[in-house]
Amino acid sequence: MRDNRRDRGHDGDVTKALFVGLTTIDIAYLVDNYPKEDSKTQASDQFLAAGGPAANAAVAYSFLAGTETTLVTALGSHPLTGIARNDLTNAEVRMVDVLDGGEQPPPISSIVVARHGRSRTLVSLDGSRIAAPAVDLSTELKDASFLLVDGHYPQLCLEAAQQARELGVMVVVDAGRWKDVYHELLPLADIAICSSAFQPPDVSYKPRAILQYLEDRDVSAAITDGGEPIIYNSTEGSGVLPVAAEPVIDTLGAGDILHGAFCHFFGRLPFPEALAAAAEVATFSCRYFGTREWMRHWPS
Questions:
Q1: What is d(CA 30, CA 118) in angstroms, rounded to the nearest whole number?
Q2: Which of 79, 171, 187, 280 is buried deepest, with most CB atoms within 10 A?
Q3: What is the Cβ-side half-sphere exposure of residue 280, based on CA atoms within 13 angstroms?
Q4: H-helix or E-strand containing 274?
Q5: Domain-located, residue 9
Q6: Which tens digits make up the pLDDT trace of 118-174?
Q7: For residue 179, what is the domain's CATH number?
Q8: Number of domains making up the chain
Q9: Hey, how many other C-beta atoms are within 10 angstroms of the C-beta on 28?
């Protein structure tokens, strides 16, 4: 790992994390079975809140840490952004909006959660139509232990990671599906938490090959795959972590929640233990519909 990274001694000190990336508005419907094409289906429940990898991770971190955290994102001033702003404010997430008054509509994700199939289907524009500029984050990074970037706003995420590297702040990458920005982002990273869909170009579609690809770039990494075991490789060792079998209602945002939880626990625990604790939180969240309900039931 790079020499100028700040020492994180896992000594129980309260950490501070900064999250940079996508915020959406999530509209989710709970049904028994996925609807047939060209049909009408009555949902048994609905959910409306802010979504997106960085936003959901920030909410999970703030809840577990019991303190306000900061999300750097692109919202603008469209009337619909009030839904996301209110939800994030209620979750004690402070927003830094790099659009500063832009009026384009925010990305809206429409989600169908099929209870019997234990699946969720999502349609969204994500942030592909929003040009989020790079900004100076030196003030936000000054006391931070971690920066998490999700890669959805390439210019913004790259500049944030570069600034974090210069300040010795640990960089965690949420690596979902491969994005071209990862070519530049991964060399700035300390840790990548990857989904099973993460597939670097010209790398064998095998978890061990992907972990080796990241190790060659000095990146500690883990690969998650729903309820399957988590494979990891870090400076503290490598191995496989089982994922507890739990009742599953909704997997929406479980990976995002795991990332936020990992940033919380890694300030206190070694890599494998932090990853295991984060997986426990993410698995628990799947018992409930939506990405917020689990917090009302989490044992204090």
A1: 11
A2: 171
A3: 11
A4: helix 271-285
A5: no
A6: 889 999 988 888 889 999 999 999 989 999 999 999 999 999 999 999 999 999 999
A7: 3.40.1190.20
A8: 1
A9: 24
